[in-house]
């Protein structure tokens, strides 16, 4: 059944069942992933998926249901299940079907240059990434992965209040993880790109990035335990920021799962720290003109020069907090209820280059990678104890690679102890970004 016919019949059925307000949210996705190994295609996976969720308000409560098939039976099932779930809700949270905003920003999330790319071209690129890595260094003995993928999606919201929004997006990604063997030791590195056209994918450059990173780890050793002046490079800082992004959720704060509850207007970081949520970022992986409730998105400072300006809200948490939605009401999938999530979340870059940060630190530690983020970080308290890798810094230069160390600290203290922020803002295959940061006195457990 065609979508518009299905929705008209669904809304009529909802009205017949005494729903006061109702809404559908739909997603149509296509994903192609190609993985190669030993100069052959190891995996070729093309998937398409479609899903539609229904929300309806009855007696002041909103019920949910969803389907992957658009037919007459689905209409009856959606209304029946939503009504049953609404009538069993016991909490008093007020939820909303949104009438929409007057204006929505134009956000470019779809690139015509990525349309209709032949699969054989993508396969050739993937094979060439592997080939180039082997050519660059004869110590490349294997690969942790080598692949290329294309994803596109169309999604929209239509409701009984006249809201009718639709957006589409697409992106191309490629990565290669060469593994080198040096004597008895194995080391890996990664080259990757998120591209808006096929011309941006350069197999040789990606292979060089991966091989160079792997080679830089040869001869790694531990260092004595102690406190070190430290630079956390952009990619390592992204992993840390991603782990603790939930503390900026209004929903988490209202549930007592964030220490930032009630701290709007307070200084929580060094004055050089500005943290943004920017759904209109050019080429951002999470750029979007509206959230999954139909609220127009906007760029906002979460932290501005050290001061907490706002937490992130959807319509429900904004109402509970006596404030306005920040346009961060998103679903994990079409079948999920609306939660709170950031879009493109990143630390605003500073003015100093990475090399200048190294010179300023003189002697200390450069951290390039954290491990164990899921088990070694407490997203509520902010405490973390993480395995890490990096380099020892002497006279403003990399002296030797460092491994077998553990970094312990607290995310909230870290924000206060940031002394400088670099200008090397990076989004490593992620909607979370960061420049490198110089931090005063991190505790390191080594030998």
TrEMBL record:
> Where do the Metalloprotease TldD/E C-terminal domain residues begin and end?
225-446
Domain Metalloprotease TldD/E N-terminal, residue spans: 22-86
GO cellular component annotations of the record: cytosol
Q: Which GO terms describe its biological process?
A: proteolysis
UniProt GO molecular function: metallopeptidase activity
Which N-terminal stretch is annotated as signal sequence? Answer: none
Q: Which family does it belong to?
A: Belongs to the peptidase U62 family.
Question: How is this protein named in the record?
Answer: TldD/PmbA family protein
**Organism this protein belongs to:** Clostridium sartagoforme AAU1
Q: What is the lineage of its organism?
A: Bacteria, Bacillati, Bacillota, Clostridia, Eubacteriales
């Amino acid at each position: 059944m065609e979508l518009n016919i299905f929705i008209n019949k669904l809304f009529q059925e909802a009205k017949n069942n005494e729903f006061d307000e109702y809404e559908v949210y739909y997603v149509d996705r296509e994903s192609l992933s190609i993985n190669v190994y030993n100069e052959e295609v190891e995996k070729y996976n093309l998937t398409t998926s479609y899903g539609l969720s229904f929300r309806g308000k009855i007696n002041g409560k909103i019920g949910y249901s969803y389907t992957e098939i658009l037919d007459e039976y689905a209409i009856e099932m959606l209304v029946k299940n939503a009504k049953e779930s609404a009538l069993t809700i016991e909490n008093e949270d007020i939820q909303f079907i949104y009438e929409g905003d007057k204006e929505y920003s134009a956000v470019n999330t779809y690139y015509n240059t990525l349309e209709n790319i032949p699969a054989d071209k993508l396969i050739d690129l993937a094979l060439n990434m592997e080939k180039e890595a082997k050519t660059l260094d004869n110590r490349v003995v294997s690969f942790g992965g080598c692949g290329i993928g294309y994803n596109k999606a169309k999604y929209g919201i239509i409701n009984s209040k006249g809201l009718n929004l639709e957006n589409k997006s697409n992106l191309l990604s490629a990565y290669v993880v060469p593994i080198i063997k040096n004597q008895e030791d194995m080391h890996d590195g990664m080259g990757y790109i998120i591209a808006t056209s096929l011309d941006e994918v350069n197999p040789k450059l990606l292979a060089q990035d991966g091989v160079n990173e792997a080679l830089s780890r040869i001869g790694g050793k531990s260092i004595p335990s102690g406190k070190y002046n430290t630079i956390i490079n952009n990619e390592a800082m992204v992993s840390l920021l991603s782990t603790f992004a939930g503390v900026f959720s209004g929903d988490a704060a209202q549930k007592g799962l964030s220490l930032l509850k009630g701290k709007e207007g307070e200084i929580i970081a060094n004055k050089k720290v500005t943290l943004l949520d920017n759904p209109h970022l050019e080429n951002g992986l999470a750029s979007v003109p509206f959230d999954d409730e139909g609220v127009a998105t906007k760029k906002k400072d979460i932290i501005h020069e050290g001061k907490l300006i706002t937490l992130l809200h959807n319509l429900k948490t904004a109402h509970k907090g006596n404030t306005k939605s920040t346009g961060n009401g998103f679903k994990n999938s079409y079948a999920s209820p609306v939660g709170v999530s950031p879009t493109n979340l990143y630390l605003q870059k500073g003015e100093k280059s990475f090399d200048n940060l190294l010179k300023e630190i003189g002697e200390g530690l450069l951290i390039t990678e954290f491990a164990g983020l899921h088990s070694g970080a407490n997203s509520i308290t902010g405490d973390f104890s993480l395995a890490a890798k990096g380099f020892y810094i002497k006279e403003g230069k990399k002296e030797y690679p460092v491994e077998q160390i553990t970094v312990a600290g607290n995310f909230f203290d870290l924000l206060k102890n940031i002394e400088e922020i670099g200008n090397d803002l990076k989004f490593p295959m992620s909607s979370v970004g960061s420049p490198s940061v110089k931090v005063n006195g991190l505790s390191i457990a080594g030998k």
